[in-house]
Amino acid sequence: MTQSDFEQNMQDIQNKNENEQTAPAAPEQQAAQESQAQQPAQQEPPTPQPAESVPPTSPLPSELHESTANATWSRMLQGNKRFAEGKAEHPWQDKETRHMLTDGQKPDAAVLSCSDSRVPPEIIFDQGLGDLFTVRTAGQMIDDAVIASLEYAVKKLHVSLLCVLGHGRCGALEVAEREYNELLRTITAEAEDSSETADIMDDLDERIAQSDSIVLRQAGISVWQAREAELDCLDDIERVHVAHTIETLVDRSPVIQQALASEQLMIVGARYQLDTGRIEVLSF
Ligand SMILES: [Zn+2]
Predict the structure, then answer these.
(1) Which domain holds residue 25?
(2) Where are the annotated segments for Disordered (predicted)?
(3) 46-51, long-range: CB < 8 A, 24+ apart
């Protein structure tokens, strides 16, 4: 994600916020729903077969369908639709699949998501064993271990898709927002006059980066970026945080940069909605 992509993303979020006041569904959601509706029948992934019909010499489940990034993402969104509608198929979770996978894995997608107990990627995308390489931290925060894990998925497992998944009512971002507000109060109290406050506010991102709080250092920048764009509600902060997370991942990982440049990897941003069970697509 380039800087201009990021700015476009921020603009899209801002436009979405304005549209939500008059439209029942967000444009991104409509696009996602339309893309599912327009999916030609012949491109739909094969319906997982009953375990009894899978011979021992079958290829790994993820080799049975198109492994391109778009096909993978479409299949994940279809799985999410099944899950949200109470029609989950729980594919590839039988004993035979488990045995087939003992010799190796070939997942099509990596997912970086929150550790929140309500947001397990395999369940909300209705995927099975061997389908998703998942990395989960509170607020999908990034450290060296996260980057090394995702680089393994990209470089060694050759995943074609990386999904950065945020979600509604994220406790980690609530903490980040609270600590951000406390930092603002501290700055205001420390300053002797309004001009000094303005000077400190100009360097607010640096104050956040130097904070003792890991949560504030990691997610406070997302709160700051959202506020700078006049996006105040937690929903929007969560969307900005997904964009910021993607930007940070690309910035910090030469492996991911190289995979993007050679078109071997696609990164998508998404946000899971707790109440509907649906995935809100933030970027493709
Ligand atoms: Zn969370």
Answers:
(1) 3-170+254-283
(2) 1-68
(3) 47/89, 48/89, 48/91, 48/92, 48/128, 51/94, 51/95, 51/96, 51/97
Tens digits of per-residue pLDDT, 79-93? 999 999 999 999 999
Q: How far is the CA of 169 from the centre of ligand 1 (A)?
A: 7
What's 69's domain CATH number? Answer: 3.40.1050.10
- Element (H or E) spanning 176, and its range? helix 171-190
d(CA 217, CA 208): 6
Residues annotated within the binding site for Zn(2+) are 114, 116, 167, 170
Q: Cα(27) to centroid of ligand 1, in Å?
A: 23
Entry pTM:
0.77
The rounded Å distance from CA 185 to ligand 1 centre is 25
